[in-house]
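Limitations

Structures in this collection are predictions, not experimental determinations, and the ligand pose is part of the prediction. Treat each record accordingly. The example that follows, with heme C as the small molecule, is included so readers can see exactly what is and is not provided: the inputs are given verbatim, and the output is the predicted complex.
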Amino acid sequence: MAEVKPAAHGRPSAVMLIAIGALAALAAAIAYYGTRGGALVSTGESDEAAPAEPQGPVVSMSLPHYEADLPAGPHRPLVQSACNLCHSAQLILNQPHFPMKKWEETIHKMVANYGAPLSESEQKEILEYLAVIRGMP
Ligand code: HEC
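Predicted complex:
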């Protein structure tokens, strides 16, 4: 068993006094800032002003709308309305020239997979248009 040194008696050393003083000052500072919601002890609240409240309910708003500039062709108004339903008709203009078969598949995909509400005859008319503006032999 190691020998336990008895606690030193007599005057506390100067180093000890300084340490106790520093701890007391720190505790006082924490207590002081704590009551003020200062930075030393966080209260979870920010001193920054809250964001401005909205000015009443939003009744309406208009978002920018960019209509794709589809070139002239057969049944253009039908294509304009039918193919603008879910996405911009610009998507058509972004495509390269495709053979009829490929356009037929694309239209079929819009109807079968995504639910484009198009009758058989409308699909034929749209195909006609696509063949003219983005078709290839
Ligand atoms: C019911 C919604 C809907 C309608 C109506 C619609 N599309 Fe789409 N279309 C989509 C979705 C969803 C995609 C995205 C597919 C993807 O990201 O892979 C898409 C993508 C496309 C693409 C990109 C290439 C591809 O094959 O994915 C083309 C071209 C296209 N549509 C053409 C048309 C044409 C032409 C019409 C008009 C007949 C049309 N779309 C109508 C839903 C629709």
